[in-house]
Amino acid sequence: MSDALIFDFEEDKVRDECGIFGIYGPGRRVSRITYYGLHALQHRGQESAGIGVSNGKDIKVYKGMGLVTEVFNESILKELKGKIAVGHVRYSTTGSSSIINAQPMVFRYYWGMAAFAHNGNLVNSNELENKLGEKGAIFQSTSDTEIIANLIARCEEKDVLSAVKKVVSTLEGAYSLIIMTQDKLIAVRDSYGFRPLCLGDLDGSPVVASETCALNTVGAKFVRDIKPGEIVVIDENGIDSIFIENRERQGLCVFEYVYLARPDSNIDGKNVNLVRLELGRQLAKEAKIDADMVISVPDSGTSAAIGYAQEANLPYMPGLIKNRYVGRTFIQPTQKMRDLGVRLKLNPVREILNGKRVIMIDDSIVRGTTSRKIVQLVREAGAKEVHMMASSPPIKYPCYYGIDTSSREELIAAQKSIDEICMHIGADSLHYLSLEGLIKAVGLPKEKICVACFNGDYLTEIPQYHEKIF
Amino acid sequence: MSDALIFDFEEDKVRDECGIFGIYGPGRRVSRITYYGLHALQHRGQESAGIGVSNGKDIKVYKGMGLVTEVFNESILKELKGKIAVGHVRYSTTGSSSIINAQPMVFRYYWGMAAFAHNGNLVNSNELENKLGEKGAIFQSTSDTEIIANLIARCEEKDVLSAVKKVVSTLEGAYSLIIMTQDKLIAVRDSYGFRPLCLGDLDGSPVVASETCALNTVGAKFVRDIKPGEIVVIDENGIDSIFIENRERQGLCVFEYVYLARPDSNIDGKNVNLVRLELGRQLAKEAKIDADMVISVPDSGTSAAIGYAQEANLPYMPGLIKNRYVGRTFIQPTQKMRDLGVRLKLNPVREILNGKRVIMIDDSIVRGTTSRKIVQLVREAGAKEVHMMASSPPIKYPCYYGIDTSSREELIAAQKSIDEICMHIGADSLHYLSLEGLIKAVGLPKEKICVACFNGDYLTEIPQYHEKIF
Amino acid sequence: MSDALIFDFEEDKVRDECGIFGIYGPGRRVSRITYYGLHALQHRGQESAGIGVSNGKDIKVYKGMGLVTEVFNESILKELKGKIAVGHVRYSTTGSSSIINAQPMVFRYYWGMAAFAHNGNLVNSNELENKLGEKGAIFQSTSDTEIIANLIARCEEKDVLSAVKKVVSTLEGAYSLIIMTQDKLIAVRDSYGFRPLCLGDLDGSPVVASETCALNTVGAKFVRDIKPGEIVVIDENGIDSIFIENRERQGLCVFEYVYLARPDSNIDGKNVNLVRLELGRQLAKEAKIDADMVISVPDSGTSAAIGYAQEANLPYMPGLIKNRYVGRTFIQPTQKMRDLGVRLKLNPVREILNGKRVIMIDDSIVRGTTSRKIVQLVREAGAKEVHMMASSPPIKYPCYYGIDTSSREELIAAQKSIDEICMHIGADSLHYLSLEGLIKAVGLPKEKICVACFNGDYLTEIPQYHEKIF
Amino acid sequence: MSDALIFDFEEDKVRDECGIFGIYGPGRRVSRITYYGLHALQHRGQESAGIGVSNGKDIKVYKGMGLVTEVFNESILKELKGKIAVGHVRYSTTGSSSIINAQPMVFRYYWGMAAFAHNGNLVNSNELENKLGEKGAIFQSTSDTEIIANLIARCEEKDVLSAVKKVVSTLEGAYSLIIMTQDKLIAVRDSYGFRPLCLGDLDGSPVVASETCALNTVGAKFVRDIKPGEIVVIDENGIDSIFIENRERQGLCVFEYVYLARPDSNIDGKNVNLVRLELGRQLAKEAKIDADMVISVPDSGTSAAIGYAQEANLPYMPGLIKNRYVGRTFIQPTQKMRDLGVRLKLNPVREILNGKRVIMIDDSIVRGTTSRKIVQLVREAGAKEVHMMASSPPIKYPCYYGIDTSSREELIAAQKSIDEICMHIGADSLHYLSLEGLIKAVGLPKEKICVACFNGDYLTEIPQYHEKIF
User: What was the ipTM of the complex prediction?
Assistant: First the structure.
């Protein structure tokens, strides 16, 4: 709507697609609690935010483009009264009409209403959509959620819960999902457990959320992770749990630890921050370099850099300063000013870097474009040597489970050798954490995590084409 | 979203639900032309506005809450490039999430995309929705449009046109409808012809619109009214026309002439303004009163008042002045100031009214609340006598064909005799135009117009209950 | 801020500069009353709106660009608590930073605070500004108000009232002015009485306003017009009145009757609507034409057209229909569509005009550009003859007293003879009301009104140059 | 304007009042460069942003409430064409009308126009304002800038530069000031040098800015700090420099190093980040505690915490995670949820803190309210001991030089002993850096910095009362 071009410095990061939150809390201000919960999950999506509430009879929803704090105000929250709530944040894609894809999506069924909030990506969505389309289903959005909602409608089971159970067993891919009917809150985690989903308790009211940081923020106690393949049903009778299927091979996305999740969250029993520190320590064991200091690319590389520095017994120094105010409507530098580029967001501290041999740690390298610019910035600030390190292995394969990596053509590690990448980004040396080191640092059994973006070992069939029609 | 209460002086009017516009114009700026066309139809709906375009491959749509001039700007129009366009304006209802009901609605079918713009109301929507729901359809809006779109998807005809033809024959009620597929513009007018729909030509490009004023505004020539039961198909092969069914009894809504349409429009061969002048003349023949002048309740009663004055040979005087700036976000007077009421929008001219016997003409009386206040205003300004007249008969029955009259309980003429109404509004006398007079003034055969709101003679079965679920 | 060009159909009208309103009402919701008062004066200015309140100690002000209903909402009004209020509406000029010119302007003086709302234009502003500048005054706006405020600050009288009295006697030009100090409301009308200003009473609370329609709207009784040269002071001691000077020759702007004021207002004892009807009747006496009907250019020509029709015993017909929804952000037709021009706002009714000899009445003709287009529209709708008439004389001279006529070069009557104008606009004949007819219709003594724009007989010296510096 | 209460977690921080930026760059896109420069200075003020440009003849300005990225867009920048530009960011205060205080302020003088951007606070503003008021000056804002602008207007020197020189020698207090006339850019730093101001060079175009980070961001080279008491004049003849007076005792605000400035800036020869690391190291020398780890209150305590950890040979751990998305319109928790408080912005990492003896470092403690909550959070996360430390001495005295500390009554160190504060915030121990340690860490001679907020040793007379009238 604005003629201002949006300049996104962080374009060279993988991006999560969503954060979800739900509460079953008669007598509580459920929309307000959801507001704070979504706010804690804001890092999982900044494009749109939405909250739906059920008062037992009706479901109301309010959604908008922008951050949680931009979309909602006091009077909107006041109008969203109910005993159950479900909320969603979604990341920023282009397209002026994308409000149509904002969640929660509310559907009127023959038997009543339901609101859906989904984090993940189905692998067989095209197939499912085509089947549904042949049978007369039509679609208003490009969201997998609409597919799931349609499947449930066509399931012959009359009881919602049975329908959900039956339908999800036909879905292939990642789906941490919260469904709110007029009187139930249903949370589903796919049988691979690709995306996190946890259960909490706010003084007796059950809460579900993508990450534990949302539980902490609203003052709820962590109860447990929802298990891969589990359907949790919350209603006036309490909490019940049923299982879709029990897989040996599971696949929590390891990138949740590397970059996506908030460091204060725990996922499947592991604290993200501790994992990141350990990634750095592991990296220090694998890649020993004679240097004067360790710096990080803030903020994503900071914990690993601290861990590295501790293990390597080198000083960790704040050598790059990030401008915290880059907003969603930043005006792009003109072609002539393009060399400003990264500097609008990151500034090196010459007094720290000048004449020094520097190890610089980022969580990952996707396309390499930003790394190249940062290496150059650090050199211009006087660094004698710049040793670039990533606290994860080279990303060689696209993700089909809800993460927006670039396409394979853009993944630098799919195209070039490490030496070539090192040359491309202009570093003195380049080191990636090994896949073994990564798994070791995470500390979960190998068969419980998905590392397909590093080794191509997808847990499901992958879509032959992954093109969206509209 | 705002805490400002909206004060709607015109609450005591019937309200149309929509205006629609479409153009098939390769090589033209179709979204811009649609913008001007919708602007000319703004009186048919002020809640939301939307324009969809097809470039032959993709359909893009942009919709928003508010007036056409508020929703669109240059850069939005520039992004809406295409060779076909369809637009819609919708009237103001309550509900924060009502963007979901804004049109055109775009649906992705198995065979491609289609955008729908609809003016009217189905009588059998609950029945159709229930049937669809049983077969697994789900609904995101409360709009009849979504029902029609779903029916088309489930129709076994593979060809869109055949499907449209088959589906519309199952619809009962009012539906002037424009459907844009990737390469066609299809206009449908229900077999009763409840709502107007006309065909124009803009230097070779076919245009369809709710009213001829939209043709004039964009510089198109009027070609003809689309006939009741006609489906007009426009594509690269030109204009084709097929018929659903040919009814003897048709039912153009007579209220289009009385109040809804713009006076400069022609509907089914009759100019609205001329009809309104004739309504006044007819009223003068029926209700002769010894008075000093004729005034109107502006703007809706003005043409009839002029006609009355001419016939009765009395001076027409501008005795009530309307504030033209009452916006959508007017702050409501507090309870204590409530007596300001109507005065914020209408002010009587004492110098004209003082000591005079006044005939005051409005187009209709719905609930009587506003009439009462205006009579009081005119008396306070010194009028010796106030003779209230309506240029239409008493409204005794609710409309099921796309007009928002109040419910039967609120229709004053459904509850009270004319004498009681006269007493209620405090007039010296009260006269309505007779139904015969109305029909005579309109000049169309009785069996071509719907006057059900006056005599309860509905053309279709009426819904047993007309409650919306959400 | 928007890239949308603003298309102003009414560019060919003279424009007033402001409307002002004030109330001294301890115990009342003075900001809310002022909101309604300004709303009634909205026709006098649509660029910006502002309200200032004094609680006896502090003065708070809120201003914004746009209509009264756009600038204010409930929560803003709630924050504007006080016992005295002053409000202002200003017309639309260009320039993104023009909020700096919005009124009321609040100034902190050595002795306290004061808010100013001004309607009019000083003739000696450049001279005064230069003098002040030489003595060290600086200016943030281009408004005369800032000049007046500075003069008061430099006046040696310590008492505000004496200062105001002394200062206003040095001002040359038009200034209907409301000054609110912390405990007083002071209303001043210049000694020529160029702009209207009246006094009302709202159940004991004095009210001042540009026009009586604002008194009516807020439910106040009209007390009297404030006299030319009068200063009315309202405070806890009641209402007092002092006089600047008593001129024989006064000069109420006659254009207030012709076009500017709302028809339901009374100014200096004359009802605007009655005057307009009389202008039409007078015109009928002066310009008799054999024709079939009288139509008006809505809305400004309507009352005169009705008067003309009555006097000439011809039918008045609604032959041109105005689109009431043209907003402030209308998107301009592209060059190619430019011929749409006037049609976006006015549509002729062919069924009324076709084959007819038409007298078309507008209140005035400024540049002739719009008249030309309308004549063409009416012809295209089939009118056999179009006789254009203006209910005022040819405008030949620019106004220096607060009205934005075009510059002399643009005033068509300053450049061409009536015959030439008639040819230019393409009418069959063209008639203006004579100056004598105008004065007669107004009914005020010749020496009480200003008709300088018609005859160049300015009441004051006129500025040698009238250029603003910034 | 919104009914949403604003929740400001960082209320317990001192706050700077402004950032300023200017460029003299014929042939360059000066407004765009200023946009990026202001963006780099956004931490110095988030209330309003403004940019003024001169094209040699006219000065245009655009200002708005909000962040730089919210106030400006492409089309606004495009309209701000010129060869000189000056920009300003201002911090957030309350008051709906505060746009009146936004800068740059533009004044029309007898001799031309000038735009002012000011960072600092005059100590003798009341005295100066009273003197000006007595002589007939009036004020529209509460900004010192308006006082300075008026003084210049009344100075008898006809030459702007002489006037500036003469006027600034009468000002007492802090004033880093940029004045743009139609053809000059004038930068002034007060003779104490309270606020930073530096000179840079962008490929030949002189640039001035509050901090060097703004130079880096726009790609300019640092030339030198502007000296206390220096007036730098930039015009077509190049750069000239004159001096107001040369004081022995100067007083750069030490809080610029402690908290206010961006860590990547250099001020008066010292890098802020290095100073902060050194503050931590110095603290480690003064306050040795037997602990397991050092954590910081992010982000303000982080550099000092890293320095402390290095010196104390303890691990620095990311034990508190900050939500980076708290926006300006965050909805405040209700009274019942108030205990959420700090948790909405900070979340402790139990897995890091549990069972540990923790040293927690913040840059300063102002009112102690937030420290108390954070200590509690850290304890709840399982920390066995919490040793709170501030990398600056106790703040006992208010600042009169442009920093918004709380009033003396609210400064906890002005009311309580260190032991009492420790008890109040619930820490196991509390240590402040000594004043000597602070000065040592900064590394500038004692007589060059102002530490009045710590020891009350003000460099100027202090105002007897510091109340603003409006």
Answer: 0.91
